[in-house]
Amino acid sequence: MGQFTDISWCDSTINPASGCDGCELWSDRDRTCYAGTLHETRLAKSLPTLYAPNFSEVRMVSGRMAKAAAWSDLRGKEREGKSHLNGLPRLIFVGDMGDVLSRAVTDEYLVDEVFGAMKSPKGERHIWLLLTKRTRRLAELSQRIGGLPENCMAMTTITNQRTANARLPYLSQVRARYHGISAEPLRGCVDLYSACGAMAADIDWVITGGASGVNGAEMPDDWAGKLWSWCGDAAAAFFYKQRGGKSKDKGGCLIEGRECKEMPLAFATA
């Protein structure tokens, strides 16, 4: 939870639930998820009432969304080091340390606690970026409740072609004003032309980057280039976060000699 964050494509982060059911980055064979590592090595020890010993044990943390909703409105404010966010509402990343669509998180909690805060008088000033790997559940829930709040972007993580093919068709079924893709940490080249198909027009934003830190690995330039080309054809904003790797600057983020830190045009009129 942070009113301000170093993550380059948002202003803040909030976690209404801690932990995750698991994914390709956190399983018996793979332990490279940064959130899972941080959860078990630091947070579970320093904040045991909020974080279970194991990342796979998900806990709902009531009250956090309401606190985030009360954060100040950033419209008209300059963001130091993040000029690409200037002029936009506060962008709050929901779920950077887990997956709020995990099984232990009830529909009632999502509707009342999570979506309720987004729609509150204070919460409606911000844009909420809800990231999940469980797009099927999000699609089904959004259809039952008549759609997500107008200021909520439905987003999913993809790391390779397999996860893109599995998650993106359900993302297209989520009833939401905005849809986004977080292609990070990218572990393989992804063809969005085949994965998205007819839903291309529904995608507002694609973020990509390679893995950084202890498990960092640079992604080939052509992986980002292919996503960039698709965004141009689909009229979607493209945000190249980092090439990845173990270096301090995380490998840069240039395509054809320029930074690509585009924000969805629709955010400016939200």
Helix/strand class: alpha/beta
Oligomer: single chain
Structural domain count: 2
Residue-averaged pLDDT? 90
C-alpha-based Rg, rounded: 17 Å
**Low-confidence spans:** none
Query: What's the total count of β strands?
Result: 11
Q: Ends: how far apart?
A: 24 Å
What sort of overall outline do the alpha carbons produce when their principal axes are compared? globular
Written overview of the protein:
The protein has 2 domains: 1-129, no CATH class; 133-270. The radius of gyration is 17 Å and the shape is globular. The protein contains 7 helices and 11 strands. Helices cover 27% and strands 16% of the residues. The longest helix is centred in the last third of the chain and has 14 residues, at 221-234. Helix 4 (135-144) runs parallel beside helix 5 (161-171). Strand 7, helix 6 (192-196) and strand 8 (205-209) form a beta-alpha-beta unit. The strands form 3 sheets. Strands 1-4-5-6-7-8-9 form a 7-stranded parallel β-sheet. The protein has a two-stranded antiparallel ribbon with strand order 2-3. Strands 10-11 form a two-stranded antiparallel ribbon. It is an alpha/beta fold and 270 residues long.
